[in-house]
Amino acid sequence: MNELLFDKCYMDEDYFLGFNTEFGIELLSGINGNPDPFHLKLPSLLDIGIMGHCTNKCDICYQGDKWEDHMDISDFIKIIDQVKHHTTQVALGGRGDPNKHPDFDQFVMYAKRNGVVPNYTTSGIGLTQDEVDLTKQYCGAVAVSNYDQDYTYEALNRFINAGMKTNIHYVYTKESYSNALRIVQGEDIWDGKFNLSKLNAVIFLLFKRKGRATNLLDLVPTYYQINLLCLAIKEYGTTTSFKIGMDSCLVNHYYDIIASLTEEEKLSLDTCEASRMSAYISPSLIMTPCSFCNEENGESLKDKSIEEVWKNSVPFMTTRECLRTKRNSCPAKV
Q: Are residues 33 and 45 in the same domain?
C-alpha cells in the first residue's frame, strides 16, 4: 500500500482509507484478509446543510420551502471535530447557495484546516470576488447548477479563470435529456459562453420529485430516456475534453442497463452510498442517510454523537439492510 499517494489516511484492523486532497482521489481497501468494506465506521463524505432557507424559489428544488435558521458555525465545528480523523470531504449545501452563508469563510477555513476538504454547489447568483477567492483557497471543487442564465456563465467563467476545479451540475429530466445526449458526445450546447475545454466535469443528477418538484410529473425521465443516457455515457463518456459524472441515483440505473462493466468502471462507480459511506446533516442537526430522506426519519445530533447515529439508529441500519439486499436500489424511493 503506497501511502505516499495520500496526504490523509485512516486505517484500522479492517480497512485502509486514503485520500489525496489535491486531486480528490480516494482509495478504500480491505486489509488483513478482509474484503473491501460494505460500509465504513464513519462516513467518508458528509453532506452538510449549512443553509436553512433560500429566496431563489427554483421550481425543481428538492429541499422545498421549509424556512429555518442557517447552521451556526459552532455546530459545524462540533461536527468536524467528531469526524475529522476519518471523514475526507464535506459537501456544503442546504436550502440556498452555501457561499451566501454569513459565515461562509469560517466554514470552509475550519474544514480545510482540520484536514477535511470542503466542496459546494452554487447557482452563481450574486457571486462575489471574495467568494471566488475563498473557494480557490480552501475548497477542493465547486459546481455551478445549469440554469442557463447570465449568472450561470459568469460564475463558471470566474471559477475557471481562478483555476478552480469547476463542474456543472446538470439535472436530467424529460425536457433536458436531448441536450444531455449532445453534451455526452462532446458538443458545446452552451455556444462558447465559457471555456468548455477548461471545465472539469459535467455531472448528471437524476431528477427527483421531492420538495418543490413533488408535482412535476412531466419532468420525470422515462426509462427509455435513462437508457439512452447510460448507453451514450458508455459509448462516449471517455471521449470528451471534460469528465462525465453521474450521481448515485443514475449510477443505480447504469448498473441495471449496462450489461458488462469494465474493470475501470467497477473501480470508479459505486451505487447508493447512503448510510454506507455518506450521510446528510440538516441545518437543525437532524442526521439522515441522505438528503432525500424525510427528516422525521432522522436522528437529532443535539443529544447523540454522529458515531452513535451512524452505527445504531434505525434509519441507518434499515437503509444498509436495503442496500445489502439490492445494492443499486433507492431506500429513500426518490
A: no
Residues 198 and 181 both lie in one domain: yes
Sort strands 15-20 and 25-30 into parallel, antiparallel or unpaired.
antiparallel
> Are 160 and 126 part of one and the same domain?
yes
Number of CB atoms found within 10 A of residue 203's CB: 18
pLDDT in tens, 83-115: 999 999 999 999 999 999 999 999 999 999 999
- Residues in the chain predicted with pLDDT less than 70, given as ranges, are 1-4
Whether 251 maps to a domain, the answer reads: yes
> For 6-41, how does the pLDDT look when each residue is reduced to its tens digit (9 = 90+)?
999 999 999 999 999 988 899 999 999 999 999 999
Residue 10, domain extent: 1-37
